## 1
Amino acid sequence: MKPAYREYLEQLRLSFPQPVSDPVHDAWFGRCVMHALEQVDALKNRTPVLGTPEDRSFMTSTECRIADEPIGLEETTTRLVEHLNGMFVWGHPRAQINVIPPPTIPSLIGGLLPSIYNANLASDESSFRVALAEREVTAIMADLLLFDPDQAGGVFTFGGTGTLLYAGKIGLEKALPGSSRSGLQGSGIRERAVIVCSDCAHYANRTVAGWLGIGDENVIEVPSTPDNEIRTCLLESMLRDVLQRGDKIAMIVATLGTTDAFGLDDLAEIREIRDRLVDEFSLDYVPHLHADAVIGWAWSVFNDYDFDANPLGFRHRTVRSLAGTKRRIRDLHLADSVGIDFHKTGFTPYISSMILVRDAADLARIARDPEAMPYLFQSGEYHPGMYTLETSRSGFGPMAALANLLLFGKNGLRALLGHLVTMAESLAEHLEGHAATTVLNSENFGPVTLFRVYPDGVDTFKAPKQELSNPAMRNELFRVNEYNRRIFDAIQSEALQGRGVVISLTDCYRETDYGEPIVALKSYIMSPFSDEEYVDAVLDSIWQARKRIGASL
Ligand SMILES: *Cc1c(COP(=O)(O)O)cnc(C)c1O
């Protein structure tokens, strides 16, 4: 008689892709995926949210336990699909919430294939061609960003935060060689290290400073201009202060595409400042210059677009916007490394992020001692696992990225980004045309529009400037902040019922000159399905909300 466990085993074998060709089983595998898709489809409705609104509580989650018996593949799928209830549909034209794209079908397949066969990018031993995909994407991106593809190196990691972590690690090794081994306070190292970025840079800079042992107190935030760019003259004097104190610069971070406003730092100027200070202080290292372009990188497809002939036929305002972005993005090659999120402006699923370094030798600076990894790297020639933070590393990121780079080509990505920017421009135009609304980032040229809604009787030509600079306006600022929060709540509750558009709110789009937070409403258009009618819907939502909560403070 068969032992009982064999029954389980035989059942469970069916839940694995078959190791040798079995077309019938493959068809069933496909059916299982189809079945999941059908169940998700049943959750779609006209709102940008899957399923039905429900009580959002984690209360019962602690009651979950593993069952004694397997529940089978179908039931498992159903239970998983239930977990999508209440999710935003990022591809819905009524979802304008954040820099989160809907992923393309090829990028999903690109992610699925290495998952089925569990490619591990620690080395090229087990999955040479998936490792090759990482190298191919590196070359494509190096070329797009105007680096030398023969010299550049790149590695995929766990998000934009990961790209900053790698840059900081490389920068530390440049500023304090040997610090990986000895620690920041180890053999002979007693210096403080700092990370310098703008006050519009992402908070991930602080995270990374904490995790690297630099300490988040040692992140120096340089004030930005009203256009959300780092003030380069202040950057220079603040860097000079650091060097005069005898502290080390672990890295300088230029942000190209700030998260809330799409501000673009002047990388060319920053590079000049850095080089000048290296000479002036006769530094024995060159402070690492990293471009956090996790959002802005995609605009590199316009580096060689013919804006005069405009073969894709973008309207004038869009051309101006795209050219304005290109003006800064084409300088990305002046950085020592660049962070790229394909899962932001490259339309792949989470996670697909890479750090690109101008000089592949920079990655060798953070390599471990081969003797520490005796069971790895016995064959093959490409061993990113020697320097990656990760040990097991998925093929998901590079394959998803490669999928979209192949799918889109330059013109495809140009068309997508051009369309998103056109929609954002159209929204900004409408908002600027109305007395009760003001666009806050009208000099930033991305798919994101930050705006404020004012009650009646406020002079919206003067108020935004006064709020920004005049401390006597503090109370007025707070009241308008509160008014915008109420507008947001009203828009949100309607949108979740399927009326209007889901936008978002940022508690501090930037600080006023006197240090108070400016609340802003935010429309981030990332859906390829967006169109004029949904721009009108945003405006409609605003007027409806304004009517409902009243036009006075
Ligand atoms: C989103 C973002 C990050 C963090 O990237 P993740 O992929 O979310 O880890 C870093 N910098 C900027 C400018 C960002 O917008």
Note: Residues 159-161, 202, 204, 255, 258-259, 292, 294-295, 341, 353 surround pyridoxal-5'-phosphate (CB under 6 Å).
## 2
Amino acid sequence: MPGFELFGEQEKKEVQQVLDTGVLMRYGFDGMRDGKWKAKELEKALEERMGVKHAQLVSSGTAALTIALASAGVGAGDEVLMPTFTFVASFESILALGAVPILVGIDDTLTLDPEAVEKAITEKTKVVMPVHMCGSMADLRALKAICEKHNLLLLEDACQAIGGTYEGKPLGSYGDLGCFSFDYVKTITCGEGGAVITDNDTFYKNADHYSDHGHDHVGLDRGAEAHPFLGYNYRISELHAAVGLAQIARLNDFLAIQKETYTVLREALESIPEVTFRRVPNGGEESYAFLSFFLPDAILAKQAHTALAANGVDACFYWYDNNWHYYRQWEHLLEKKSLGKLPTELYKQLPDYSIIDFSKSDHWMGRTVSCLIKLGWSREEVSNRAATMVKTIRSVVKG
Ligand SMILES: *Cc1c(COP(=O)(O)O)cnc(C)c1O
């Protein structure tokens, strides 16, 4: 997945242009900037690549999620449904607004289980937030139908799946709002950065203002601009945007490399009858950022993960025990360990997760091993890796 593996001359050239003008900020300084608007250019490139009306570039993927929620009017007491398997950014972005993260189980897609979503809806629910983990997507058709039935917003977290598609549409563009991260380990990177995409003019306008202290961006004098509502600073710098501009031009090449490597590894693992693969919903095509597969049970999965690492197969994950990506280790959320006091609505509405049954999530997550697909591997490294993976996993399942 990581675009940083393939840094090159284009990235340097884009950054150098910014350094030559000396204008590191994305807004203003029109006279000094010699026509260079890297953030605006990257927004335009994203709009084109994703087939949407609007893109708002911001400082991180977490910021993008926060802004997406804020742009749709989500606030204190509103409930947002999010999966048990994701990155902590999902609940951080919800908490930042005083809204309530409601954890919902996953199925064999390793993303939101539509049945569990339907059951979790209350009169306070505002948003369903599927997270397209490890390069593949949630069952967006089913989730959209649920959202339409209950008048909820569909917000896609496509931070780990940029370039994947569902029913021919780029991931992130299917719901009402979509978010990307361009942090250092994502498929394409700005160093740090993120984006919100949408076709909704109001959400876009709100995102544009909210991410820059509420500035309405009308006129040519920043100091004289109006502030129609409260905002915050989630701006990206021109230096970061410049890196992303070079990287987005290479996205299709990165995706082609990921697909080729994924295919070699997958075909190799298909020779093992005990190994099955994560379900990709009908109509979906992965970004191939990871290869995720199931072992027959949790003990074998854990053993396979340990044995893979011991045999030099790096970058494989056993998410079930992971500190950052699965609810079991999120004791800071589950025990409400905040520095200051949490908003009252939030404190009262947060469910007692110690009594909620996530056994279906545990069933799938416990059996899952996910291997990152790196961009920098040579063909030879990939075929050696495939052979080692097959040998290692065979020896584990044979006991
Ligand atoms: C990386 C990531 C984010 C957050 O992005 P940052 O840019 O690191 O803040 C959010 N969601 C998912 C699924 C991610 O992988």
Note: Residues 251-269 form the longest helix (19 residues).
